[in-house]
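Go through this:
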Amino acid sequence: MHSGILRTAHPRVPSRLVLVAALALGTVGRGLLLAMGEEGREPEQPAAESAPTGAEDSSDDRLPDTLDPDLATHAVELVTVGFDMLSQSPIVLLREPLHGKVVPIWVGIAEAQAISRALYGVVPPRPMTHDLMASLLRELDADLVEVVVNDMREHTYFGKLKLRVGKDKALRIVDTRPSDGLALALRTGATIHIADKILDATPEFGFVPPDEEQQVVRALGLTVVKPTPEHVEEFDLPRRAGVLVLAARDEAVDAGLRRGDLIIELNGQVPATPIAFFEAVRATRPGGEVRLRYLRDGNEHTATLRVREQPRRPERPDPLRPGRVRL
């Protein structure tokens, strides 16, 4: 079973996959506008897509809108989006911090775009589907508490949403495709859980990250990217290897980190790319410390973060907060 991170694309990855990667993971700015359409429209989807092994549910053969109360799950964090060279499909990586396991979730192109936009903090000029769903939840006084990837049948993942409506004590359970649930979780601050039986039966996959300039990773309460020339100008960054903090939350904010910091060292190693940053975090045992050196306004600072056994529930994202990218 292979569940490692691949640093480079497989030599036999077809050029069509590279094109799909550009569409699904288009970077912030012009590239993402092209992926969305000039007017911020969602791209047209093919009539049907072949489902790779371990793909998510795309049929009407769905489980009832109930959830086994005794289902054993672990909290996970959504780390990044890339491609699986075995199935040649977009893939989302979930990390279970307690044991360091990485679980792949195969998604469609549109869902990969939606997840990538949320990772980058993109606010489109007009609401896309998952942005609309998050707005509806807020307006109807409904809180998405948790997204659960609860089952895998016939190589297909299934998911549930746990919703609290108004002051109701009882949670409402709604069936979902895992990809839609993940895209919503990023927009609402919901926690993500995955059934232990899925953790124990991770399918074989070969992760192909996007080009370095398109990589975006979330870990330790940080969202990091490789600095672009625009970032260098915006934050007056030095010409040094490292990853840029695109967003900070939870324990990272408590440690003093913020948007625009350039992380130049992690446990004595230089994180040259976001994927390298994640690999260094993944190599740290649960409960262990991650020591960071970073630059801000030309001055060097240090911070220490602890690899949590359970991810904290993020604060509900504010679509209008400063620092979010507007198109």
User: Anything to note?
Assistant: The first strand starts at residue 55 and ends at 56.
